[in-house]
Amino acid sequence: MLNIKYDIVGSFLRPERIKTARSQYAAGGLSLEDLRKIEDKEISELVAKEVSHGLKFVTDGEYRRRWWHLDWLKEFDGFTTKHLDKERNGVVNHIELGYITGKIFYDPKRSHPEIQAFDFLCREAGKYPGVTAKKCISGPNMILVDNYLQMGIKDVPYYGSDIDALIQDIALAYQGAIRDLYAHGCRYLQIDDTSWTYMIDQGFLKKVADLGYEKSEVLEWFRRVSTKALENRPSDMAIATHFCKGNFKGNPLFDGFYDTVAPIISQIPYDGFFVEYDDERSGSFEPWSVLKETGAAFVAGLISTKNPVLETHDQIKQRFLEAKAVVGDRIALSPQCGFASVEEGNCIDEETQWKKIDLLVSCKDFL
């Protein structure tokens, strides 16, 4: 059960000290130990600021990550990434894509940077009564998206063309990771998974078809692996999911409405669904009326982290009540995404970022 009224998606704009330190580390001018000390100090200050601005669920801002998804996925054996340059909106960006190299497995006995990161966050959150540390990880579908739909690899090491065996192992790996996080004190987990919105964009669906796949086939992969990943979860651990239409340096990646994917996603036993609804690109709330039957919470992402224009309290209240009339009383409010899905961050400054957090918290009077 997810009992929240308002929450954040997870990432925050990286302070300049973090950006400089990570650049120095990448160039070989800073040790990993010294980088971690700088990250620790900045995360400690971030958690204090989150609490001072009224947040009850805090994250580490993803300050230790380059990417919102790949840094987590690298925790699994059998998965790695490739660096390449890709042009978008007239700008060449240095990106990474992931692919499968062998049997997918999560080894709880080896040292995991993401587990260490959560341990530190827990210690910081524990300094403040009534504050909960929230861990954000990327979802199992993203392994399939990167390998099959982005890289276009069909015959993979260890599995060959047996995607059923792969889905089984990905799910088991996630089950192991969830148990490990739980053992380290995690009681609130958010699984970020933009794979669903890849599958509502007509441009991307053409790519899927050109690779020889059917939309329904791919969505069934996603449903199966996501559902099985949650099997055997601890009963007192709240697990939510978040998805938006992409967010690369503040730019959306996909277009389309949720109508064709909401009926499938809502079958997955998440406790809450964080969904982007910050502009007309999102369509109506109607696809999520099905959540009234499941008891899961709908978290309306009404405050934009991409647009620097500050929404008004009345605008958010009106939209929130529109959503509530459709999805019912199990509803909460959040920004539509994090403020920095990649370390460069969105096209927004820190002052506006915190004004948007203050707006979020101020809306508790009607939540």
UniProtKB/TrEMBL annotation:
Domain Cobalamin-independent methionine synthase MetE C-terminal/archaeal: 9-343
InterPro entries documented for this protein: Met_Synth_C/arc, UROD/MetE-like_sf
A Pfam family annotated for this UniProt entry: Meth_synt_2
Source organism superkingdom: Bacteria
GO molecular-function term, one example from the UniProt record: zinc ion binding
One GO BP: methionine biosynthetic process
Protein name, as recorded: Methionine synthase
